[in-house]
Amino acid sequence: MSQAAYDVVAVGNAIVDVLAQVDYAFIDANGLVPASMTLIEEPRAIELTELFPNKVIAPGGSAANSMTGVASFGGRAGYMGKVADDQLGRDFTAAFRAEGVRFDTPPRPGQPATARSLIAVTPDGQRSMNTFLGASTLLDAKDVDKPLIESATVLFLEGYLFDRDEAKAAFVHASEIAKAAGRKVSVTLSDIFCVERHRESFRHLVEHHIDILFANELEIIALYQTHDFETALAAAREVCPIVAVTRSEKGSVIAAGSETHVVKAEPVAKVIDTTGAGDQYAAGFLFGYATGRELPECGRLGSVAAAEVISHMGPRPETSLKELARI
Question: Is the dihedral of CA 126, 131, 135, 137 positive or negative?
């Protein structure tokens, strides 16, 4: 196996985030579902964009956020995701490259527009996500950069891509390239409703193709259809070499074979916005793993990144994670 030129490369939905801090009445009045992600069409996306007060607009997308986290740690990151040849797409590309992440996927001309996620954040820091997938779902096998995947220590796959067959095919193709090159493959389950839509596909993928599984507590419980965290974790560790599960203020649990590591959450003065917490945990963990660190240290780096991102609005680091982690 050749020396890796990149630490982590990812395949995901390229999405622009539109965030706003709202009260609980706004959630009720506009029919939003707290602490979840709902797929919407473009007219609803335009409507919510107009309704959102004091908007913050930032490049987003789950795996994309993770790659900016890897770069903030000083890691070498690459990304594959589809944007339209429109202003939002150009903004996404410019901002992504400015953060030091390689992004060469060609934009798509015409409709649909670049994807956007409308994220309403309530005073408790929880988020209601309404996502128009637009051009992001039109990523297909020809957009998969084979040499880039072959040159990375770990491939990171975003569970949201399971929502469209074309993107799912690209997802599987990327995984096969990584495996053939002797690289590791990781996946995040992304969202509990995503798990419920594609449970059997996810379970097959985890058992047969994945080296590192990321999930939060609700997602892994949904994946294995139980009400008990320990039961779900036991099921996952039987079929996947490394399982990393985030548990909010309880920190995270990492299971690898017979090993179990409980990692504390990093302290946060005030939770402002939980958007991107899981994405940044994965960033820290994968950076640590790709650079040869022990699993508890990988978890600590994940906790550092998650704590940074929930202390402000937006899903990407605003402070150097390398400096915060003291590495």
Answer: positive
What is the pLDDT averaged over residues 290-297? 98
Give the tens place of pLDDT for each residue, 37-64.
Answer: 899 999 999 899 899 999 888 888 899 9
- Token pair of 270 as six digits: 């005030």
Chain-centre distance of CA 38, in angstroms?
Answer: 16
Check residue 313 and give its pLDDT. Answer: 81
CATH fold for domain 6-325: UDP-N-acetylmuramoyl-L-alanine:D-glutamate ligase (3.40.1190)
Whether the CB-CB separation of 183 and 59 falls below 8 Å is answered with no
Assessment of whether the complete model's pTM goes beyond 0.70: yes
Three-point CA angle 232, 233, 234, nearest 5°: 90
Question: In which element (H, E) is residue 205 found?
Answer: helix 199-209
Residues whose CB falls within 8 Å of the CB of residue 80, separated by 6 or more in sequence, listed in order: 9, 10, 11, 12, 103, 105, 139, 143, 144, 145, 148, 170, 174
Residue with tokens 């150009």: 90
Contact yes or no for 177/149 (Cβ under 8 A): yes
- Interatomic CA distance for residues 72 and 68, integer angstroms: 6
Residues 6+ apart with CB under 8 A from 237: 243, 255, 256, 257
Domain ranges in the chain?
6-325
Q: Tokens standing for 255? A: 């299971």
CA distance 41 to 265: 36
Helix (H, G, I), strand (E, B) or coil at 82: coil
Q: Are the CB atoms for 135 and 84 separated by under 8 Å? A: yes
Residue pLDDT, tens place only, 110-163:
999 999 999 999 998 888 999 998 999 888 889 999 999 999 999 999 998 887
* pLDDT on residue 1: 55
